[in-house]
Structures are given as structure tokens and as C-alpha cells.
Amino acid sequence: MDPSHPTPHSSPFYRGRFAPSPTGPLHFGSLVTALGSYLDARAHGGEWLLRMEDLDPPREQPGAADAILRSLDAFGLHWDGALLYQHSRLDAYQVTVRRLQAAGLAFPCACSRTEIADSSLLGVGGPVYPGTCRHGLPPGKPARAIRLRVANDEILSFDDVLQGQIRQHLAKEVGDFVICRAGGYFAYQLAVVLDDAFQGITHVVRGADLLLSTPRQLYLQRLLHLPTLIYMHLPVAVNTADEKLSKQTHAAPVNDARAPALLFQALEFLRQEPPPELRRSTVAELLQWGVSRWQPLRMEGLPTLKIAFE
Ligand code: GLU
């Protein structure tokens, strides 16, 4: 199957990206992801693009997208090219969902979350879909979501730069997964795959909370004949209660006025061991130091790291 849109750029050797969801302002965890992906791109002499993943209006916070842009600017994390908002890509997602359905690779599903939870085993990211609507909707039940059909013997594997080899038996550990959610919202897994290809991304650097989503994305890339990317999943910042920093765990927004101090802490978190004299540096100096000394393998095999402050 052809991708719904051709890539507008030809890919250089390295094109990375940061893809925040505007569910709240940047916090230390998302700053670390932004910085890690920026340093990896710049250390490779590559480009670094920005995509606003505004796919989930009910979870979004008014003003969050602009606050994220202001913070990136204050932290000196300047992106290349035009910022892509996912809300501008809805037609491309729709065309792909229709094509997948027409090819018999996706099907409508009438099950509610509770129905699925009641009749399934637990997989990597929640209950494994039991296949209820695979061969047609139950009589009289309307479609709620669209799911991608996963072949029974599909084992996906890839070599993550930091986390090593990851293997997933997609049918047993995930099952047929949602590409269009109830309410007509497109799913992250579909949009991220289409947009990484659309933007000509070659390298994905993001938090290890998305490590086990990657096989779903590889599967979609294969079905859609899109290029395979190189993945590096950074340790996720957790608080002292071992919870991922997020809006749900009340992570504090980064204070743009303290950008140099926070960048220093983010470099320490990424195990880059910035020397104490760098504490008095500007954001530009900190970033320059970070790019020239970038050694991501210092974080090898660490899925989470506690932050030293809260
Ligand atoms: N939008 C996702 C998030 O903020 C990140 C997606 C990705 O990097 O693939 O968690």
C-alpha cells in the first residue's frame, strides 16, 4: 500500500524530532526528552524537527502548546523547518484508515473498554483484544473504534540503541489495536507512524515509556510500506514514589527563568556528567557543550531514573 502522502522532504542522513502532546506545559521529564533528542540530532550533524501531537482535544490544556513553544525557546532548543500540528493532518489519517479497511487490514469494533477488560488477558499496555469483532460486528451493535488486524504469528523485533533487543509477539501481547478511537479521534500509533514518515524522520529519540509501543509502529510501517527508523528510548524521569513525571502525577512545569540551571540538571540526568564550572554558563554554552560531548551510551539499559529533586 502506498503512504497517503509522499514525504515532502528528501531525508538527510539524520533527521530527528521532538513530538510533545499539549496536555500541559513542559515538565522536567519532557525537558529531558526534548534535550536528549536535540543533542542526538545535533551531535550527528542532523536536523531536529518539532511536531505538536494535538490529537486528543479532551486531554489538552488551553495554552499548553504555546507554553511548550515558549519554553523550548527559553531553553535554546530551536527546531528546523515548519512546526507540524497533527490537527492539520486529519485528512491523511482518514485516507489511510479507509485504505487499511478497504484492504481488509482493519475492521470496525463495537466493544467497550469494560467488555474487553472482562474477557481478556493482560498484555503490555492493558488488556489484549480478544478478537470479538474481527469477523464482523455483533448484530445490532454500532462501531465505536477501528482496529488494525494483527497476524497471529507476528513477532516484531528491533535493536534499541539504549535498551537493546526488544521482541514482541504482537498478537499475544497486544492483539488487534486501535487506529481510530471512539468519538472519531485518530490513535497515536497511527498518527505517529504517518507523521514520522511525512516529516522524513530517520531517528526517534523519546522516553522509554513508549518502548513497548514501538513494535506496533514497526508493524504499521511495514503494512504501509514506510521506512523503518532507528529508535533510542531514553530513561524516563520518575519521582521518589517511582511515578513517571506527568501532568497526572502533578509534575511542576519547568521555570523558563531558570533555564540554565535546569539544563544543567537535565544533562546530569542524561548521565553526561557536566563539570561544575558549567553551572555558571548560558543556555547556548550548555547546549554547545552537550552537543560536543554527547555520549548516550552512558544511559545504556536504564529504563527509568529517579530525579534528584522535586
Ligand atoms: N506525543 C508523545 C508524548 O508526548 C510522544 C510521541 C513520540 O515521541 O513518539 O508522550
Mean pLDDT: 92
Query: Which percent range describes the beta-strand content?
Result: 15-25%
CATH class of the largest domain: Alpha Beta
CATH level 4 superfamily of the largest domain: HUPs
Please tell me the CATH architecture of the largest domain by its name.
3-Layer(aba) Sandwich
How many helical elements? 9
What's the arrangement of strands in the largest beta sheet?
A: 1-2-3
Explain what the structure shows.
This protein is α/β, with parallel strands linked by helices. The protein folds into 2 domains: 15-90 and 192-306, Rossmann fold (3-Layer(aba) Sandwich), CATH 3.40.50; 106-184, Glutamyl-tRNA Synthetase, Domain 3 (Glutamyl-tRNA Synthetase, domain 3). 30% of the residues lie in helices and 18% in strands. It contains 9 helices and 14 strands. The protein has helices spanning 28-43, 64-74, 90-102, 113-118, 170-173, 188-198, 214-223, 259-269, 283-293; strands at 15-18, 47-52, 84-85, 106-109, 122-123, 126-127, 145-148, 155-160, 164-169, 177-180, 203-207, 230-234, 236-238, 304-306. The strands form 6 sheets. A 3-stranded parallel sheet has the order 1-2-3. The chain has a 3-stranded antiparallel sheet with strand order 4-7-10. It has a two-stranded antiparallel ribbon with strand order 5-6. Strand 5 (122-123) and strand 6 (126-127) form a beta hairpin. Glutamic acid is lined by residues 19-21, 53, 192, 206, 210. Glutamic acid binds next to loops.
